[in-house]
Structures are given as structure tokens and as C-alpha cells.
């Protein structure tokens, strides 16, 4: 009897110690995302499907709502890794920061906004925008810079040919479009599709299709963190790559069902159509490697918008080590 009790006690202790050891091996990573968006579907897939956990990572996600706040969180050690527009790393570099932010994995590779009109346009021509009131995005942010870049490619000077409004906060742009005397607006999904379904607007063009490949949203970390946590960086990148491949292979509805817990107020049908729209135009990167051509396209877009503070070389702010290692495994 004593032997049985001793065996049970010993087994319990061993189980407890094993459990503790497993918890300790899950390396914690604080991840900050610039906003909550269907555009970031592969990230939510990695969380929901357990891809991070498979790599021994305990990833805690926080939404920091805005590029400035996201970078503040990263630079002040409020987060370890940030998902934000690649342009923010250039802004930080230009401020002579002691600890620069390095881009190491790309998540989205096109702009994610759509041109929405109040009235239906069966045969839309970009020239129709001239002389109209256009509700744009925040000055210096990727949506606005890409918007201006595309308009210029279409022969439209956004500051001369349009009544361009940029004084509305990101969260209030949709309601300002509906209630205001505005003819056109630049919107993300699922808002663009929701407006179309509700008769509040009509999607007539895609800025993502017009702008080409660009590192629109990327993962970045401070140089010091990256140097001290190389194993975690590779494991994180591996989980993201796995999620990117899964998203590329699965139908939109399956993806929508997987990430729905992150969008409880959005109907499954709307999630599905939004994901399908992004998939069809190649918005989700299928691998984490940020290419040099895409980086140069980003700088061209920033320069066209008058927002490039410094011509920063690809090799200076992009670390491809982890992405290349993952792709070769």
C-alpha cells in the first residue's frame, strides 16, 4: 500500500515538474498590431491554429491603434514585436534613434484600401475625380501616401485637382463619408463591402491593384531585441510563414471561420467576401521575405507624397536572415 501511495505521489510530482518545465519553454512575446484588420488574416490564423505555440512561443497580442502609438510601444519596450507599416521604421531612423526598428517579415504586400463612391459608377474613369470632394486618410500614413501615388499615376494632382480632406481621424472616416458632403472615400475592408451591401457606397477601384507590390504591413523589432532573441525571431517568422501558406491554400470561407473570434461584430458572409477580395488581388504575402524591389517601391511612394525624410538603404533597415532561413528549412 505504501509503495502504491509513494508511486502515486512521485508520479504527481513528476507531472507537476514536467508541466512547469513546458510552461517555461514557451517563450513569451508581446506583439503589438497597429489596428485590428481583416487585412492581417494570416496573423490571426497563426494564433488560432496554434502555429506560434508549435514553435514554443507564447504570443500575447495587443492592438495599439495607430502607427505613432505602435512605435512608441515598441521603442519603450511595451512590446517586443510590432506589426505596422514599414514607413514607420524610416521615420524612426531619420530621427537618429539610438535603437532603430528593423523590418524582418512581411505580412501584406499591397495597399488594402478601395475607392468608394457615394453614387454608382458603371463605367468609372479616374478623371471623374477631378473637382470632387475626396475624403482621404491621415497625412504621412501608408493609405494616404499610396492613395496620392495612385492618383498621380492617373494624372491627378490630389492637392490641386481635388478638394482633399485629411482632417478626420481614422476611426471616424466611414461615418464622416456617410454623413458629410463627400463624393469619394478611401476605405479598408470590411467597411467598403459593408457600405456597398447597405447602399451607402459603391466600390469602384482598388488602390492595391493600382499601386503594385509594396511592404505595406511588416513585423519589426528593435535591433537590440533582435540581437538578443535570434531563436525567437526565427520561430516567430516560421509560424507566420506557415500561416501565410495556409491562407494561400484555403478557401476564403475556411479562413473567415478561423479568424471570426477576432471579428465578433462582423458577419461570416462579410468576412468571407472581404478575405476573397484581398486574396484575389494578392494582398496577403505568401512568404515573409521582404524583397528589395518592394522596399524601393515604398520609398518611391513616400517620395511622391513628400514624406520621405531620408533615403534609407534596404540593407540598413531590412533583416532577411530569419525569412531566408525559414524558406530554406
UniProtKB/TrEMBL annotation:
Q: Which organism is it from?
A: Virgibacillus chiguensis
| Annotated compartments | Periplasm
InterPro entries linked = SsuA/THI5 (IPR015168)
- SsuA/THI5-like domain residues are 41-253
Which domain of life does the UniProt lineage start with?
A: Bacteria
Q: Does the keyword Metal-binding apply?
A: no
GO CC, alphabetical: periplasmic space
The protein in question is named NitT/TauT family transport system substrate-binding protein
Q: Which family does it belong to?
A: Belongs to the bacterial solute-binding protein SsuA/TauA family.
* Keyword flag Repeat: no
Amino acid at each position: 500500500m505504501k509503495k502504491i501511495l509513494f508511486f502515486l505521489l512521485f508520479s504527481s510530482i513528476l507531472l507537476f515538474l514536467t508541466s512547469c518545465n513546458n510552461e517555461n519553454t514557451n517563450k513569451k512575446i508581446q506583439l503589438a498590431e497597429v489596428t485590428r484588420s481583416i487585412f492581417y488574416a494570416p496573423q490571426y490564423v497563426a494564433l488560432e491554429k496554434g502555429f506560434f505555440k508549435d514553435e514554443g512561443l507564447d504570443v500575447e497580442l495587443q492592438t495599439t491603434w495607430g502607427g505613432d502609438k505602435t512605435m512608441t510601444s515598441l521603442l519603450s519596450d511595451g512590446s517586443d514585436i510590432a506589426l505596422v507599416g514599414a514607413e514607420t521604421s524610416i521615420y524612426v531612423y531619420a530621427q537618429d534613434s539610438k535603437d532603430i526598428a528593423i523590418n524582418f517579415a512581411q505580412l501584406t504586400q499591397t495597399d488594402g484600401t478601395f475607392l468608394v463612391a457615394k453614387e454608382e459608377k458603371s463605367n468609372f474613369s479616374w478623371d471623374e475625380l477631378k473637382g470632387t470632394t475626396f475624403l482621404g486618410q491621415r497625412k504621412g500614413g501608408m493609405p494616404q501616401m499610396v492613395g496620392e501615388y495612385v492618383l498621380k499615376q492617373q494624372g491627378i494632382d490630389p492637392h490641386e485637382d481635388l478638394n482633399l480632406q485629411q482632417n478626420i481621424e481614422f476611426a471616424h472616416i466611414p461615418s464622416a463619408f456617410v454623413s458629410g458632403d463627400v463624393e469619394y472615400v478611401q476605405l479598408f475592408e470590411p467597411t467598403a463591402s459593408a457600405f456597398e451591401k447597405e447602399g451607402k457606397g459603391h466600390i469602384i477601384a482598388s488602390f492595391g491593384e493600382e499601386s503594385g507590390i509594396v511592404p505595406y504591413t511588416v513585423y519589426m523589432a528593435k535591433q537590440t531585441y533582435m540581437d538578443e532573441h535570434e531563436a525567437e525571431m526565427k520561430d516567430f517568422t516560421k509560424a507566420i510563414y506557415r500561416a501565410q501558406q495556409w491562407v494561400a491554400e484555403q478557401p476564403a470561407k475556411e479562413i473567415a471561420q478561423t479568424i471570426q473570434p477576432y471579428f465578433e461584430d462582423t458577419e461570416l458572409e462579410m468576412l468571407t467576401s472581404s478575405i476573397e477580395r484581398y486574396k484575389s488581388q494578392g494582398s496577403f504575402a505568401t512568404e515573409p521575405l521582404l524583397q528589395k524591389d518592394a522596399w524601393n517601391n515604398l520609398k518611391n511612394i513616400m517620395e511622391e507624397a513628400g514624406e520621405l525624410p531620408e533615403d534609407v538603404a534596404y540593407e540598413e533597415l531590412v533583416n532577411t536572415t530569419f525569412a531566408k532561413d525559414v524558406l530554406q528549412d
